């Protein structure tokens, strides 16, 4: 679908109409001249809508007449100096019937309100007629010589708005008409943005930034890099998360940013029903080839698949007892994932964060002489993703192909998600009801019960965690010290973090959201949840 702005519909005719005390409603001026007669627009048929009753004045009116659409803002000024105690006028803009008039409507309304004020202050329109018929007999009317001409005003409005979509027309020394037509975007859809979402810019934000922007917007722009989640952006920019979300919504509305998920090697992706578009649309495959390839000399794919420490932990029997069997394989690759994301982002900072198109990437980092991965190879890699396979397992299975073709895995996955070639399978921890009882639920049920200090009991979650910690503290094997960085983090869980965790478990929130709230890795969160009670992971 073509979303490019193709310009404004031209104005067909502009005319100025008044209510004459003796002649009634009439057209005083029009531009182009005699246009109403040339196109068979009968003013007598529409005059009651052009100069309506006072009840319809001072509001924007749209009239459909034959093959035309008339938009106006009728004005009625009451004053005892007028012959009939009022003066009615209207600037009417005529468009083709199927024209989109929304961009013009604010300007037309503002034009009517402006001349209403000028008429009340100086009677500029009634005096411009150069006749005393609009005023009471005996009224001392001073027709001051002025350069203001309604006919000239209509001509300049018509020509400037049709040619330049803006105008600046002086009226006198202290007033001028300043109009600029803006395209009307569709109302923003109800985009649900969460703190774990990752904004990715699709334009170069540095080129459109304005120093007059909102301070929060200016503070978060440097951290919109396709890697940082909204939580991280909030922390890095020292901004309120809710304000960051509102800023991201504005950028999404103006097609500057899109939302993706947090890239982790524990994520699961699967091909969508639109994967055939990769073969049918040559531009998708072409853009993918240029976007996902690593720059020459990159050593990202030379990083080890797992650290020695992670290998020992995975082979430890103690690890299998301490952690639930439902944990993912993310722990063995977490250190590699962090290094991978940092190195990848540094290597592609000048191209990956500004656009997803291949053109800008080629301009910033020419790839002459570099062999791009074939479309068949990329399609096979997307097709090999499946519902039960993490990115880590998929990466190990296809490591040789990925390395030989110099593919940036993070950008490869991002491109697939953004173009809906693949979709993210989210994971949700669900506690077993028999083994899990949130202290928050008990607190809510007893909110209205008055207790003495002797009745206060320890928090259920504290009791469970303390019991587990005491058992774990008795184990003195040397190999368990390597688990301290992972399991030991749960011992430092503060009271507020406990409440956040229990609340998230009650609401069945995803791992991404829980990790973002607690500021911990998925491995650490899984360890803490497994200590609280039995749980299962649901993929959706």
TrEMBL record:
A Gene Ontology BP annotation from the UniProt entry: positive regulation of autophagy
Higher taxonomy: Eukaryota, Fungi, Dikarya, Ascomycota, Saccharomycotina
Taxonomic source organism: Kazachstania africana (strain ATCC 22294 / BCRC 22015 / CBS 2517 / CECT 1963 / NBRC 1671 / NRRL Y-8276)
A Pfam family the protein falls into: NPR2
InterPro entries membership: NPR2-like
Name this protein carries in UniProt: Nitrogen permease regulator 2
Family: Belongs to the NPR2 family.
GO molecular function, one term: GTPase activator activity
One annotated Gene Ontology cellular component of this protein: vacuolar membrane
């Amino acid at each position: 679908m073509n979303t490019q702005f193709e310009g404004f519909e031209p104005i067909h005719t502009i005319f100025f109409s008044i209510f004459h005390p003796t002649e009634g409603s009439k057209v005083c001026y029009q531009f182009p001249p005699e246009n109403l007669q040339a196109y068979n627009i009968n003013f007598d048929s529409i005059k009651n809508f052009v100069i309506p009753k006072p009840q319809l004045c001072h509001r924007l009116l749209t009239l459909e007449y034959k093959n035309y659409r008339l938009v106006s803002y009728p004005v009625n000024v009451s004053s005892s100096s007028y012959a009939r105690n009022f003066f009615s006028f209207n600037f009417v803009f005529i468009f083709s019937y199927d024209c989109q008039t929304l961009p013009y409507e604010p300007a037309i309304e503002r034009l009517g309100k402006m001349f209403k004020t000028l008429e009340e202050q100086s009677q500029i329109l009634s005096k411009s007629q150069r006749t005393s018929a609009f005023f009471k007999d005996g009224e001392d009317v001073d027709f001051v010589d002025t350069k203001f001409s309604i006919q000239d005003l209509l001509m300049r409005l018509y020509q400037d708005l049709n040619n330049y979509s803006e105008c600046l027309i002086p009226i006198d020394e202290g007033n001028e008409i300043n109009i600029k037509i803006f395209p009307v975007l569709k109302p923003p859809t109800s985009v649900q943005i969460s703190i774990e979402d990752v904004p990715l810019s699709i334009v170069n934000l540095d080129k459109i930034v304005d120093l007059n922007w909102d301070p929060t917007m200016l503070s978060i722009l440097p951290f919109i890099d396709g890697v940082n989640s909204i939580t991280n952006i909030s922390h890095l920019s020292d901004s309120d998360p809710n304000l960051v979300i509102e800023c991201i919504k504005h950028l999404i509305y103006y097609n500057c940013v899109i939302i993706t998920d947090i890239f982790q090697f524990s994520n699961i992706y699967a091909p969508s029903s639109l994967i055939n578009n990769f073969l049918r649309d040559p531009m998708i495959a072409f853009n993918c080839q240029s976007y996902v390839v690593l720059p020459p000399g990159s050593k990202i794919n030379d990083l080890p698949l797992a650290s020695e420490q992670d290998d020992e932990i995975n082979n430890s029997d103690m690890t299998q007892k301490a952690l639930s069997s439902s944990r993912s394989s993310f722990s063995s690759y977490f250190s590699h994932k962090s290094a991978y994301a940092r190195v990848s982002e540094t290597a592609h900072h000048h191209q990956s964060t500004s656009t997803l198109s291949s053109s800008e990437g080629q301009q910033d980092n020419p790839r002459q002489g570099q062999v791009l991965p074939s479309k068949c190879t990329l399609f096979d890699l997307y097709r090999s993703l499946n519902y039960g396979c993490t990115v880590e397992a998929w990466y190990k299975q296809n490591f040789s192909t990925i390395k030989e073709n110099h593919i940036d895995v993070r950008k490869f996955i991002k491109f697939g998600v953004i173009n809906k070639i693949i979709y993210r399978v989210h994971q949700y921890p669900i506690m077993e009801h028999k083994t899990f009882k949130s202290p928050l639920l008990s607190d809510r049920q007893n909110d209205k019960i008055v207790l003495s200090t002797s009745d206060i009991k320890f928090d259920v979650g504290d009791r469970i965690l303390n019991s587990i910690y005491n058992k774990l503290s008795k184990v003195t094997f040397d190999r368990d010290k390597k688990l301290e960085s992972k399991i030991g983090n749960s011992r430092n869980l503060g009271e507020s973090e406990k409440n956040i965790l229990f609340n998230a478990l009650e609401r069945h929130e995803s791992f991404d959201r829980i990790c973002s709230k607690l500021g911990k890795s998925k491995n650490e969160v899984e360890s803490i949840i497994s200590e609280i009670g039995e749980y299962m992971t649901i993929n959706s």
